[in-house]
Amino acid sequence: MDTPPIEEQQMFQSVTCKIAASEPEITEPNMLSLDLINYVEAEVSRLESFKSSKMKELVFKKRSELEDICWKTHILPEYDTSLEVAIEAIESGIF
Q1: Span 67-90, mean pLDDT?
Q2: What's the predicted TM-score (pTM) here?
Q3: pLDDT tens, 21-57?
Q4: DSSP the chain
Q5: How far apart are CA 84 and CA 59, in angstroms?
């Protein structure tokens, strides 16, 4: 998967370094503000959606490569439900 640019990662550096912090260790103002929490939740949701789309793209690409190999070697590709199962698992968040 693609790694987000450094600038994008740095925006969340203050949040990620406080994940395991205890309450007395959080001393920065607005560190737990509702706006920041909502912003981080939206970013996590966006990244989960991005991850899901990239995983589906990879599954389809690998399936296509397998079909090409089968056709080149004169083997009929087997069509089973594994592709659908993989897509359902990705969409449900299991992966």
Answers
A1: 85
A2: 0.67
A3: 777 877 777 777 888 889 889 988 998 999 999 999 9
A4: -PPPPHHHHHHTHHHHTTTT--GGG--STTTT-HHHHHHHHHHHHHHHHHHHHHHHHHHHHHHHHHHHHHHHTT-PPP--SHHHHHHHHHHHT--
A5: 10
- How far is Cα 95 from Cα 90, in angstroms, rounded to an integer? 5
What is the chain's alpha carbon radius of gyration, rounded to the nearest angstrom? Answer: 21
What are the C-alpha distances in Å from 95 to residues 16, 18, 25, 56?
A: 22, 26, 33, 11
Residue 55, C-beta contacts closer than 8 angstroms, at least 6 positions apart: 90, 95
For residues 63 and 56, give the distance between their C-alpha atoms in angstroms, rounded to a whole number.
11
Identify the residue whose tokens are 């449900």: 92
- The domain segmentation of the chain, as residue ranges, is 6-92
The string over 24-55, giving b where at least 16 C-beta atoms fall within 10 Å of a residue's C-beta and e elsewhere, is eeeeeeeeeeeeeeeeeeeeeeeeeeeebeeb
